[in-house]
Amino acid sequence: MLKRAFPPIALFSLVCVVGVAGFVYLEGVSLVVAAFWLLDPTSMELYGVGDRVRAFSLVVTVSLILSTLWIGESVLGVVFGGQVQEELKRMQTKRHIDEMTDHMIVCGYGSFGRTIANTLSNAGRDVVVVERDEHRIEAVQEDDIPSVRGDARMEGPLQEAGIERAEALVGAIDDSNANIEIAILASQLAPDVRVIVRVGNQRYSKLARRAGADNVIIPEIRSGQDVSQSIL
């Protein structure tokens, strides 16, 4: 902030110094009087100054106003500039998501969800990530994948992600109960969407299917099978 505001503050200070020095030089007044003229140019009329001093005063006053406006613009830019840019980016992302059809929604951006989202995105599929953790949202943005900030167990974030137009939804949160809740809600909001959920063990598998999941993935079992296949 100080770095951006330094040039206009330096200009303002320079104008003040030049103004005071100019009044002292042109009219021979004291520094106190010159400073007073700088603050209140109308007070010069009491001293009967000439046109040359009036013209100089006008230039100094205009310069002070412009440098003050520059200071204000710099400070406001630092304070609100980031918010404005963030809001513009959010609006662009929302417009992009609103134009999507047959896309994939990945709920959760842990290692499992991130792998799925990036694999789909690299394959040319449209992907939207729903994530409530701020740090993970930053990771989604770094990966240049559209995201919706919020809890995927709530109706609002899923609708913002375009659940009615999506082809499939993946419950990738590292919490079986949360993924089952997502499956229930997704099935209610978009009965035709394909729902894939991650669960921690076989105990949740039947429950997830009853909740509306079309496919249930148990990463530990799947990775164990992959390792076995690679050995065989």
Describe this structure in words.
Helices cover 62% and strands 10% of the residues. With 232 residues, it is of the alpha/beta class. It has a 6-stranded parallel sheet, sandwiched between helices. Helix 1 crosses helix 2 (31-39) and helix 1 runs antiparallel to helix 3.
What is the secondary structure topology, with strand pairs?
Elements: H1 2-27, H2 31-39, H3 51-98, E1 104-107, H4 111-122, E2 127-131, H5 134-142, E3 147-149, H6 155-160, E4 168-171, H7 176-189, E5 194-198, H8 205-210, E6 215-217, H9 219-231
Parallel strand pairs: 1-2, 1-4, 2-3, 4-5, 5-6
Major sheet summary line: 6 strands, parallel
Tell me the CATH topology of the largest domain: Rossmann fold
Rg from alpha-carbon coordinates: 32 Å
Please, what is the average pLDDT?
A: 87
Number of strands: 6
**CATH architecture title of the largest domain:** 3-Layer(aba) Sandwich
CATH superfamily of the largest domain: NAD(P)-binding Rossmann-like Domain
The helix-and-strand class reads: alpha/beta
Which regions have little confidence, pLDDT < 50, spanning 5+ residues? none
Strand order of the biggest β-sheet: 3-2-1-4-5-6
Give the termini distance in whole angstroms: 62 Å
Order of helices and strands: HHHEHEHEHEHEHEH
Number of domains: 2
**Cα shape:** rod-shaped
Helix run count: 9
CATH class of the largest domain: Alpha Beta
Fraction in helix: 55-70%
Strand content: 5-15%
